[in-house]
Amino acid sequence: MKKVKIFADKNLAIGKIQPTLYGSFIEHLGRAVYEGIYEPGHPTADEDGFRGDVIGLIKELNVPIVRYPGGNFLSGYDWRDGVGPRDKRPTRLDLAWFSTETNEFGTDEFMKWCKKTGITPMMAVNMGTGTVKDAAQLVEYCNHAGGTAISDARRANGAEEPYNVRYWCIGNEMDGPWQIGHLSADDYGKKALEAAKVMRWTNGEFKEENGRTWGMQPLKLIVSGSSNHEMKTFPEWDRVVLEHTYPQVDYLSMHRYYMYDREDRDPLEDFLGSADDMNEYIGTLRATIEYVRAKVRSAKRVHISFDEWNIWTVNAPRSEPLWKKAPHLLEDVYTFQDALVFAGLMNTLLNNCDVVHIGCLAQLVNVIAPIMTEKGGGVFRQTSFYPFRYLANYATGETMRTFSDPDLFGTKYGSAREINESVTHDGARRSVCVSVCNYAQEDREAEIELRSFGDLRAVEYVEMTDPDLFAVNGFGKEKVVPHEKALPDVKDGSRVILRLPAMSWSFLRFTY
Ligand code: AHR
């Protein structure tokens, strides 16, 4: 059996893992909201119509922040349609997904849901059909205490206290011709700068000539970067947009979905190379941010909000009629193989935690999601649910730099590593976690050397592997799950030898 070495040292950290790295996303798309998080009359729904079974699974995942309300939906959305008495809210066409939006659920419902679930809201303002004024007034609706028409409307709608929303996305995928109101990089950059400035003013953020700053809780603003790195405009889009907006924004967004088409017999190697490709993509944007920072002579560091990432496999023709309310759309059922690639993507996010400060798994329920629901019925955990659950719950603190010597394999992106790992350390929890994917078609013996952490004791060891790469979970059958393994001996307080089955994900947790 081939051997591989993985080495990490307590003194060599990449950076701090922001809790917001484990965020997710709910869009008015398909059944993410309706029949997903919100289904009045469902046996587990509370007095607000929020599904309790779904909240239970979200808590299991330990998601700290959720982006809302889109997505492509955002660019045709008027937030005013979704507030106020329900019987007066208009029903509209949603041109992003050719659905009907009843607006039963809007900003106030989302804020209430966030409060109940302990989730931080990450709102988005419409830069497609929306104006700078619409954006600023949504900030006013959410964050201004009262005494103005807009803030008093919120109070009349039942929220006496402002929501104090800190995280705001300025538009969504504005580089994409599929976007309602798509713009060029220059036009978007100019509009985003004005939106950011006026949103900050509305929030009471103001800088005097002498540098004195008003506003105690500044907004954290996310400017819309490339939709993926196959866009012709990538990475020029990101440079231009950042050059316009750098002083006003805190994060550059990036999105990426990795696809595998079984019908088309896509090469498996390409799919297994996704994690390394994601690493390259982040690297390019990291360099672009640094370039612009130098060019605009700024001391400030802009970070990355990877606010849409996932596997997205179904490209089947739409089977639902146009203009249906809450149609079944993008309801991918993830395979074991998807979970394996997914775990590698999570390792990549962790290994770039110094620059990627926000991550949003897109999406959370029913739409390319780890949680699936049945109208009036049950829920199930997709295969991808598990790597997320383990890492979001335990891989906290700092990511450690790892050194490893795996073989490489060829992919359409270039070469990729057969072994893909991340090692994290949380001093406060006295915990070290190792997440390893073996993408080789044979078992590997891994020697994991974790120096300087003290005397490590293994406390958890789970493994996901399946002879059927296309095995899936479903309602009442969650068979693709991690299996507990016998805890390995820790030699000399820091070294373990593991057998990594071909095509497997392993997760090990130590304490000291
Ligand atoms: O998450 C699904 C869609 O993918 C989002 O609406 C859009 O932003 C992206 O293209």
- The helix count comes to 10
Strand order of the biggest β-sheet: 23-22-25-20-19-16-1-21-24
Averaging pLDDT over every residue, what do you get?
96
Which fold name corresponds to the CATH topology of the largest domain? TIM Barrel
Radius of gyration: 23 Å
Task: Report the count of strand segments.
Answer: 25
Q: What gap, in angstroms, lies between the N and C termini?
A: 31 Å
Q: Please state the second-level CATH architecture of the largest domain.
A: Alpha-Beta Barrel
- Give the class from helix and strand content and strand pairing: alpha/beta
The proportion of residues in beta strands is 25-35%
Helix content: 10-25%
Q: Main β-sheet: number of strands, strand sense, barrel status? A: 9 strands, mixed
- What is the fourth-level CATH superfamily of the largest domain? Glycosidases
Given as residue ranges, the uncertain stretches (5+ residues, pLDDT < 50) are none
> What's the structural domain tally?
2
The first-level CATH class of the largest domain is given as Alpha Beta
What is the general shape? globular
The ligands bound in this entry are: alpha-L-arabinofuranose
3D architecture notes:
The chain is α/β, with parallel strands linked by helices. It has 2 domains: 3-8 and 402-511, Immunoglobulin-like (Sandwich), CATH 2.60.40.1180; 18-263 and 301-342 and 352-394, Glycosidases (TIM Barrel, Alpha-Beta Barrel). The chain has helices spanning 52-61, 107-117, 132-143, 149-156, 185-202, 236-245, 268-272, 274-295, 336-351, 385-394; strands at 2-16, 23-25, 65-68, 92-94, 99-101, 120-125, 167-170, 206-207, 213-214, 220-223, 251-258, 303-311, 356-362, 371-373, 379-381, 398-404, 408-411, 414-417, 419-426, 431-438, 444-451, 457-465, 483-484, 495-500, 504-511. The longest helix has 22 residues, at 274-295. The chain is globular, with a radius of gyration of 23 Å. Bound molecules: alpha-L-arabinofuranose. Residues 27, 29, 70-72, 172-173, 308, 362-363 line the site of alpha-L-arabinofuranose. Alpha-L-arabinofuranose is lined by residues 27, 29, 70-72, 172-173, 308, 362-363.
